Amino acid sequence: MQKFMIVGGNRLKGIIRTSGSKNATLPLLAACILNAGKSVIHEAPRLKDVAVMQDLLMYLGAKVNCDRNTIEVDTSSIQSVEISEDLMRRMRASNLVLGALLGRFGRVRTSYPGGCQIGSRPMNLHLKGLKELGAKIQEKFGYITAEAERLRGADIHLDLPSVGATENILMAAVRAEGVTTIRNAAKEPEIVDLQNFLNKMGARIVGAGTDTIKIEGVTQGDLKPVAHTVIPDRIEAGTHLVAAAITEGDVTVTNVIPEHLEPLLAKLREANVSFTVGEDQIKVQGNGKIKAVDIKTMSYPGFPTDMQPQMMALLSLADGTSIITETIFENRFKHVGEMRRMGADIKVEGQSAIVKGVEKLSGAYIEASDLRAGAALVLAALAAEDGTVIENVAHIDRGYERLELKYNALGARIIRVHN
């Protein structure tokens, strides 16, 4: 088990570049299954989750070649439609191959996926949508089998705007006969990136980024391999912005799409964080005391649940009391106990956390329970007095590419220790 040893108290200064989006790369890799040929994905982040998806594709029979941040995927040799339980349990997003395999081969068999234990993320919306496209679904002994001789377009209304369900249904509908309409669809930028990728491939999709997406089905022969550049990771970029704010630093975050960060920027502005927005970069200049703000996580374009822990770290040092309400995942306050070890004054009541700002945080021996909780603890440690040890940083590696090297280049003092 690897850990970070962090000596806090340094102001971060300099330029930091955001990597490509993890949450966009994973569905793009899955979407490669839909065509029989070699597609190329540029700016893919070198992350554990991306490596797991590559392993999954190779398990199915694809040929995958990775050169730094470029991934070539040749899916012409895929034959298997059954995914091992081990691969599925290693990452939640492994379920994204369901729609693509069903769309291309008419059959898929897999176990239930794993991933961070931050709350319930049921598969029912995914399976309901695939059923409405004509798939026969069988759930037995912890496995899901989906089969369809022919997928047909349908009018599908999601009970919740689930990102994963929207992406799975979208990929399957590309190969369905007729027109499919997904209503109450998730609006995240990563879904827009998936639409753009699939349309390059030959799909006919409109509406991504709104709550209604329409897909006109195409034949296998209409789909061709393509090259595509992944959008920047808005959650990584947001984490860097908060890192600059919490250390009262002077940091320019490059390779960003400011529009994707507007929900976070609105709260940073309210919290008295000074920043300047450029075309593809944002500069944060720490300007003293943070003000307390209230936050409620919502589906995009609301405040992202993936930025809630990082903002809690910042608000733990704010002037006043903040209330953070989590509406997406019921177990996303696991970082609270670890922040309390560092001197934070936080009380959880149901799905809300009451954060009373303190003058300072102190170093402690703490543990990352999941990806974003781990990122939040790194930020808290950067601002804390003395040293902090963060155990189980493998969680952090799932979503941040060389985080300690990026922050050390800004003046942080982070050492990765291999046990």
Q: What's a concise summary of this model?
A:
Helix content is 31%, strand content 25%. With 419 residues, it is an alpha+beta fold.
Your description of this structure?
It is found in: Cytoplasm. The modification 2-(S-cysteinyl)pyruvic acid O-phosphothioketal is found at residue 116. Cell wall formation. Adds enolpyruvyl to UDP-N-acetylglucosamine. The protein has helices spanning 22-31, 48-60, 85-90, 97-105, 124-132, 163-173, 189-201, 234-246, 262-270, 308-315, 335-341, 371-383, 394-397, 403-408, and strands at residues 2-7, 13-17, 38-42, 63-67, 70-74, 107-111, 136-140, 143-147, 155-157, 179-183, 204-206, 212-216, 227-229, 250-254, 274-277, 281-285, 295-296, 321-325, 345-349, 352-356, 365-367, 387-391, 413-418. The chain is α+β, with helices and mostly antiparallel strands. It folds into 2 domains: 2-19 and 232-418, Alpha-beta prism (UDP-n-acetylglucosamine1-carboxyvinyl-transferase, Chain), CATH 3.65.10; 22-229, UDP-n-acetylglucosamine1-carboxyvinyl-transferase, Chain (Alpha-beta prism). It has a 4-stranded mixed beta sheet with strand order 21-22-1-23. The radius of gyration is 21 Å and the shape is elongated. The model is unreliable at 115-121 (pLDDT under 50).
